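hey
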């Protein structure tokens, strides 16, 4: 069994100033945040005077540990972890969020959280953050553009290595939603499953409908989007939040069919992130090529994992217009290991497996059960050898 929490080294790394806390302008920022919240709450009451719901439900802040890992090309990125259950076996699970969201989307509500359910089952839960996180620091101190391949090639392998060193296990379990699931497949293509005990992929598309009439437009759009831009998705989400209601048109578009209005608005304010244009540009490449591929369009990540014997669970929703079941489940045809497939009915959308109130009764037990079935596959000779190159920075 890995070392206990108290045995972990506590020496702080020399990390960039923007990662350290507190900052000199913390008080003005707190005031600005309160003023902005009051303005948005007032707008919500004006726009939805008939609603009895509060403007939003605040995220339930867990005592996360924050670590920093460094990728091969010099980026320093945060990695967060939930506290271990005392006496648990602590097999590591890495959770990866979708595009346009941050790690809070994985643990927004304590009693309706996949992350906390896995923690309560005795796993050591790590939350993946990559170079798109606001606290990530590039090697030269200036923000640089990147795409999907950069995260899959540099950040994810570095995060996995750090987790294995930190936990003392030989393999990890992995749960990815949308972009997080797509990153799983890209990592599997290079790692060949050597460090993967089992995985669960939620609403992650691997095949895309090619629109012949729009192929030229997609190609042109991809060429004219520079990788260095950050699209202000977080700001726009906050500004739009007062107009969002449960069951409304917007909630249907983003696939939040079963998410309450107060949680959905809270998600838009607290759990969103800006969109790196390089990620969007590569997504256009997928649409153009019709498959989950590298930036050149020559390497098909799904074809690259063909024949691997890794336990994979795929979850999809018939009501998901962003990732249909056929787009998500095709990966299973290429794998030879144990597989599990859960298709939810048309009342379930893209975000519902993570955030719906009844997910804890349907989806969460299925995922926890799948990982528990394969948890011993993460045991190995490296256990009890937690000589980590990363250091626990602080509790937040």
């Amino acid at each position: 069994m890995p070392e206990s929490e108290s045995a972990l080294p506590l020496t702080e790394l020399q990390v960039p100033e923007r990662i350290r806390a507190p900052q000199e302008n913390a008080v003005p920022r707190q005031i600005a945040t309160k003023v902005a919240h009051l303005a948005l709450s007032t707008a919500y009451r004006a726009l939805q005077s008939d609603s009895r719901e509060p403007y939003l439900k605040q995220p339930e802040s867990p005592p996360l540990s924050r670590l920093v890992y460094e990728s091969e090309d010099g980026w320093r990125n945060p990695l967060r972890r939930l506290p271990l259950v005392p006496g648990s076996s602590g097999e590591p699970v890495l959770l990866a969020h979708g595009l346009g969201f941050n790690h809070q989307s994985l643990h927004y509500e304590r009693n309706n959280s996949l992350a906390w359910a896995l923690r309560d089952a005795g796993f050591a839960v790590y939350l993946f953050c990559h170079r798109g996180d606001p606290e990530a620091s590039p090697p030269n101190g200036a923000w640089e553009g990147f795409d999907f391949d950069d995260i899959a090639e540099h950040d994810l392998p570095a995060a996995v290595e750090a987790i294995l060193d930190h936990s003392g296990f030989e393999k990890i379990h992995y749960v990815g939603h949308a972009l997080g699931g797509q990153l799983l497949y890209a990592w599997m293509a290079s790692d060949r499953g050597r460090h993967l005990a089992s995985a669960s992929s939620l609403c992650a598309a691997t095949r895309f409908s090619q629109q012949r009439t729009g192929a030229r437009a997609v190609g042109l759009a991809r060429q004219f989007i520079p990788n260095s831009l950050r699209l202000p998705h977080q700001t726009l989400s906050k500004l739009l939040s007062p107009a969002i209601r449960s069951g409304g048109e917007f909630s249907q578009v983003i696939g939040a069919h079963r998410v309450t209005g107060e949680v959905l608005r809270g998600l838009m304010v607290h759990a969103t992130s800006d969109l790196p244009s390089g990620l969007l540009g590569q997504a256009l490449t997928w649409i153009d090529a019709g498959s989950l591929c590298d930036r050149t369009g020559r390497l098909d990540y799904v074809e690259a994992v063909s024949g691997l014997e890794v336990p994979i669970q795929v979850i999809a929703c018939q009501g998901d217009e962003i990732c249909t079941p056929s787009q998500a489940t095709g990966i299973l045809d290429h794998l030879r290991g144990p597989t599990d497939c859960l298709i939810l009915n048309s009342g379930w959308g893209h975000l519902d497996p993570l955030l719906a109130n009844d997910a804890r009764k349907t989806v969460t037990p299925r995922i926890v059960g799948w990982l528990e079935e394969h948890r011993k596959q993460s045991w190995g000779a490296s256990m009890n050898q937690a000589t980590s190159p990363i250091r626990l920075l602080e509790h937040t």
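The mean pLDDT is 85. Residues 10-395 form a domain with the Rossmann fold fold (CATH 3.40.50.1820).
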